[in-house]
Amino acid sequence: MSKRVSQRGTRTFYLFGRVIACMALAVLLSAACVQPPWFATWYAAPQDYNIIFPGVTVPPLAISNQSVRQIVHTSHGGSLIRIKLSNFFGTTPVTFAEARVARSTGNGGIDPATNRTLRFGGVGNVTLAPGEERWSDPVYLQVPTHSDLAVSLYVPLNTPVVTTHTIGMQTNYLSPGNQTGATVMGNATTTSVYFWLSEVDASTAGASDGVTDLAAHPYKVVVAFGDSITDGYGSTASANRRWPNDLDNRVQAAAEDLGRVSVVNAAIAGNRWIYDGVGPAGVTRFAHDVAGVSGATHVMILLGINDIGLGELIPQQNVSADQIIAAMQATIAQAKASGIKIYLGTITPYNGASYYDAAGEMKREAVNAFVRSANGADGVLDFDQVVRDPSNPTALLPTYDSGDHLHPNDVGYQAMANSIDLGVLEN
């Protein structure tokens, strides 16, 4: 063999070795990129569409050869996102032949330059077994804080709708056929329900917010947990005027002092502490809808009015103030065990609501006395004091009343958010 040939072979081997080394490094870097610290930037607590208030039924609903485009309003942004799909309450498999995410332009439209195909384990379609939840692979997409994303799912087969978030207070869209890639879906009908969509996570991998050292600047995730008053019933639809949204606006405006904080909403309208019904009982769903939320560090809870009101209407589900307090105590223990700071809200007034009575009011006052006591939580959110009518403390201030004497309006929700001391998020 000539010396020249030998040298050429040596150089070829050397270059090949460098290529292999570079490829290995790329794989390692890629692996590092797809496993960043995730934080939830949007959440919708899953519930069974078919189960609502006791004695009330809904007609079955199915989706077949349709696209669902669902609008989510983010909290803190990032440059990398992932989407959780859920068949948590389903009794049959559900197949998504295609799933996409894009920046929303409003009224169901998307920016096509941002439309990304979602993959699951590298595959562009996914079937969820009954009870299964699945994260998409990470997608690089610049998502600003307080932006709207559109998550589009194509459901090809006749599929019963079970896992939903029913009171979404947001306009979503249903269209025939596979229109997940359409800039504007044709022949769309609207709905306020979220279907099979549970969580959107973000990461600041890539330093979209200028912060590169996650260890030195840790993120915080605040989970708002409760019933329809936290779900935003009575607020302006599609306007993000729930009290957790108003809190999030304050949090992001104070980012220089608070650091990176995300606020997400894990409420279910109609939810109760003790009994399953509209969503699993609060004391049992805490593990999934608070501790199970990516990056959860704080929880703010307003729950209990439906235990009181429905208990007065349905004797077999009547509960005492002591039972509600015991559920709160159990949840405080769950939060502490999970390393999550917990803040309990006093139950807001409801005189004039359809299920108000004097016995229920006595329970509300007893529970609120416990919440205001040294109960082991990290703090108290005295929503009752904020929204009640000083001349009639058992009722909402008329300025804050959405009209049903139970749910605040936009102004009332803003007052609730304004009452929260942001200092609790500084550490």
Automatic annotation (TrEMBL):
Keywords: Hydrolase, Membrane, Transmembrane, Transmembrane helix. Pfam families: Lipase_GDSL_2 (PF13472). Residues 224-415 form the SGNH hydrolase-type esterase domain. CDD domains: XynE_like (cd01830). GO terms for molecular function: hydrolase activity. PROSITE patterns: PROKAR_LIPOPROTEIN. The chain crosses the membrane at residues 12-32. PANTHER family: GDSL-LIKE LIPASE/ACYLHYDROLASE, PUTATIVE (AFU_ORTHOLOGUE AFUA_2G00820)-RELATED, GDSL-LIKE LIPASE_ACYLHYDROLASE, PUTATIVE (AFU_ORTHOLOGUE AFUA_2G00820)-RELATED. This is SGNH/GDSL hydrolase family protein. It comes from Dyella koreensis. The lineage of its organism: Bacteria, Pseudomonadati, Pseudomonadota, Gammaproteobacteria, Lysobacterales.
